[in-house]
Amino acid sequence: MFSSFVCIPRAISFQSITSHSSSKSEKAQRIDHHFRKIHRSVNMESLQNRYLFAEIFMRESEYAERNPNARLIKLGIGDTTEPIPDIITSAMAEQALALSIAQGYKGYGPEQGNRELKRAIAETFYKDMQVKENEIFVSDGAQCDISRVQMLLDSSLSIAVQDPTFPAYIDSSVIVGRGGTFKAESGKYKKIVYMKCGAENNFFPNLSTTPRTDLIFFCSPNNPTGSAASRQQLKQLVEFAKENGSIIIYDAAYAAYISDESPRSIFEIPGAKEVAIEISSFSKFAGFTGVRLGWTVVPEELLYANGYPIIKDYDRIVCTCFNGASNIVQAGGLACLSPQGFQALKRTMRNYMENAKILVDTFESLGLKVYGGKNGPYVWVHFPGLSSWQVFNQILERAAIVTVPGIGFGPGGEGYIRLSAFGHRDSVLEASRRLRMLL
Amino acid sequence: MFSSFVCIPRAISFQSITSHSSSKSEKAQRIDHHFRKIHRSVNMESLQNRYLFAEIFMRESEYAERNPNARLIKLGIGDTTEPIPDIITSAMAEQALALSIAQGYKGYGPEQGNRELKRAIAETFYKDMQVKENEIFVSDGAQCDISRVQMLLDSSLSIAVQDPTFPAYIDSSVIVGRGGTFKAESGKYKKIVYMKCGAENNFFPNLSTTPRTDLIFFCSPNNPTGSAASRQQLKQLVEFAKENGSIIIYDAAYAAYISDESPRSIFEIPGAKEVAIEISSFSKFAGFTGVRLGWTVVPEELLYANGYPIIKDYDRIVCTCFNGASNIVQAGGLACLSPQGFQALKRTMRNYMENAKILVDTFESLGLKVYGGKNGPYVWVHFPGLSSWQVFNQILERAAIVTVPGIGFGPGGEGYIRLSAFGHRDSVLEASRRLRMLL
């Protein structure tokens, strides 16, 4: 979701802007006068410039420059590192090569995704949940689908998010005009409801005090806390949405990592199809972060106030603003969901979750409160009395480990840091050694 | 850009909607009462349901059902049909397989695209135009980039489009709220300026009578007319944009097909970097319609009225609403731009353009006025006195050839049909035979 590179255009010379205008000086002046008339969108204007992972990258680079011999361990960005099982990459290679022969060539596919892949997604992830193939929209990833869902829904709708949570829900909401002004004191956008999800409430919002909003973004297992909502909690959430006439936009990108009885889909909850859209991804369970594949389920039962099916509008968005995921990548997705592919991926996931356990044990042995790492590949560590940037800096400076300061996920993340379990085992073990020495 | 499949959800049973609510009837009633509160966005509401290629597909399917033995020739949707040169698919296969080994695995890449690919795009398409690598944003295709540019810019901005033109400019503008109400009598959205580009004005708008708008969508070579704007015309367009303080959103998806001296990029025009964004694609020149790869150039010189660089906001959009094109596909893009790859693609393009010539000759020999087919792979045929749907129907019913009625590209397309030259040679020759017999 986050590259280590952010384009920062060089300073623009204002002189260069007018250098091409007409040689007739009168006309040139007239042109210069009218030259730039397009105002910046208020939404982009209110979007905070502080781009979390760019800031982290800057600090990391500065550190590396000052310490050229340090062996930096990156447990910051949640980026997969283990190779993709051969059965999956072979399927993609085969599909690529098939495009070179007359009988194998394929042009545009359905914008909504290939039928076999949609069927495999329905069978693998939505068994007994009455999710139909035509309700599944295959895409190039969850982050992209979040913004397509944003385009779908009226910009005047109000939203609630977990606090802390993945920043793209808020940022894309601000981009389409649902944020309001940013308040530096609170670290919050005025029009957004932040549902505190901390250790004190078992990482689930207190719905009895949560104001009604039109939309509720909900990520489970949560990024960054790694905690998955229980069946009972999700039942409450669905009932809350029904009572309020809200739509839940449920992000299940980490669902495959759930190890206990927590639901892996909102559609495990009876009645959820009337109130929820689910977004999911191959990125984290199949190592497809750079390959790009995801999907979104928009149930037929989900209707606007006037009774019009939302799926019809989403289909239109997908056909107008998107053009289908790559056919090569979709072939890989299908191989991921074959019995052999899925078994191989489970081994990789187990490996990451063992990393998580190593990190959890490390911090617990140091007497710190640690969350996550059981149903999701993130470890969420509390450092009482310290700011999360302070902790980030100390761990970087003294152990050469890159983490993510919790505040980057919302004000509710202050005092915490997130570690990704997606690293290689030797890095995680080395990180554990350094942390034990440091703390 | 258009699949042959459009999801039309089955009729929704309104009874089923309430079937999951609580067993306590009082509570159930309360929930039902509040159940659906989300209003449909006014923008989606004003979007016309008539989805051109869905309508075509329906008529085509009906015909096929009535005539099970007919050999249908599809020259409708502009979908590539020739295999991709082996050097390109091999590069993708290799990249896919590399993801299975520890040293070859890659996760998230830069959202803006891989550096080598951006450099190759700059060198191949923007030589001597001062387009820098960091101004190029690699994507999953032009249609997707159009909607990202729509998200970038304030929804209150006014727009102009060529008439006729590719429908996605208008549809995506309506989705973000720039359309206003649709007028059935005129076939136009109230707030959109339609710049008539017909044979009578050499397919270039009369700018002296064109009202000022904030944004100008301009596609050259144009889809559907196949005509490319000349250098002189594009100079006028750039000057017009400067005088009005407008931004040109220039779609160059078919630029590689230009065979004369017409510019292949808006940035060939001095000063264009201050007023234009260019969107382009691998779809049509590399047969990547199903593989998915494109790019957008946002120049550093392009500024908002307040002097803020638009590239900074676009970078933010790309980082927030997109996550980079597939690494496998980007490897293919790089191979397309290798000397050997590009030579091979030129052969395929020549083949398509020979198809175009066959179609042009066919219609001309029948005494019809034919446009396009020289700088773009579309042939645009005038049938005076007939509606384009009438012509579409006759050619379908009597020659079993699928075309596209010109009116689907805007009211200015009435009386015309578009034929795609992207078919196989034998189909095109057979179509030519049938048309000569029919007309």
TrEMBL record, chains A, B:
UniProt entry keywords in alphabetical sequence: Aminotransferase, Pyridoxal phosphate, Transferase
InterPro entries with a match to the protein in the record: Aminotransferase_I/II_large, DapL/ALD1, PyrdxlP-dep_Trfase, PyrdxlP-dep_Trfase_major, PyrdxlP-dep_Trfase_small
Entry-linked CDD domains: AAT_like
Recorded coiled-coil stretches: none
A Pfam cross-reference name: Aminotran_1_2
Cofactor(s) listed in the protein's UniProt record: pyridoxal 5'-phosphate
Domain of life: Eukaryota
A single BP term in Gene Ontology: systemic acquired resistance, salicylic acid mediated signaling pathway
Annotated ranges, domain Aminotransferase class I/classII large: 72-428
Sample GO molecular function, one term: pyridoxal phosphate binding
Family statement drawn from the similarity comment of this UniProt entry: Belongs to the class-I pyridoxal-phosphate-dependent aminotransferase family. LL-diaminopimelate aminotransferase subfamily.
HAMAP family: DapL_aminotrans_1
Entries under NCBIfam families matching the protein: DAPAT_plant
Name of this chain's protein: Aminotransferase class I/classII large domain-containing protein
Naturally occurring in which organism (per UniProt): Psophocarpus tetragonolobus (Winged bean)
